[in-house]
Design goal:
Arc Repressor Mutant, subunit A; 2 domains; four-stranded antiparallel β-sheet; 6 helices; about 15% strand
């Protein structure tokens, strides 16, 4: 299970502007970015590479719509587990390794984990649920089935608060 960072990274305003553009459309033309940001194409390329090396840009992928592939069934499953040493990492890793589970969250409160699964049909959904309950230490699950996806597009820069953007250091 990945560890969360204990502090926010430091970005200058140009990094924030660049990240906002590419988060909305990574395929944006370097010429357009150059004009919009007032930087040379090589400066943009250098900044993008630097952000990749820092782990800010985790990868370059295509944003595929799952529905044309028949992956239109979504369920949110809460998972309660037996609390033993190392359970969060072990069970979290096991949950993340199940085909069909898109997201796994370790939580505090009445449940220990929340998973989001996307599958093609009820049979596949039952197979995923069987795998979840088959994990050593899983005590109980409770699932909610998504009837309609209103919004499913994670973003980072566009949801940063003004206070968070306030930690951005200005270039001098």
């Amino acid at each position: 299970m990945s560890k969360t960072r204990s502090r926010a990274e430091t970005f200058d305003q140009t990094d924030i502007d660049l990240l906002e553009y590419i988060e909305n459309d990574f395929d944006v033309n370097l010429n357009v970015l150059s004009e919009e940001l007032g930087l040379s194409k090589s400066a943009i390329h250098y900044r993008l590479e630097k952000l990749k090396k820092r782990g800010v840009i985790k990868g370059v992928t295509a944003d595929l719509d799952p529905v044309p592939f028949g992956l239109d069934m979504v369920a949110i499953t809460e998972v309660a587990v037996t609390h033993e040493q190392g359970y969060s990492e072990d069970i979290g890793t096991d949950l993340a390794g199940i085909d069909g589970i898109e997201q796994v969250y370790y939580t505090m409160g009445d449940v220990d984990f929340v998973t989001i699964m996307r599958v093609q049909d009820r049979e596949q959904m039952n197979e995923v649920l069987d795998e979840i309950v088959g994990i050593d230490g899983v005590k109980e699950t409770s699932s909610r089935f998504v009837m309609d996806e209103i919004k499913s597009s994670p973003s980072v820069v566009s949801v940063m608060s003004d206070d968070m953007k306030g930690i951005v250091q200005k270039e001098e």
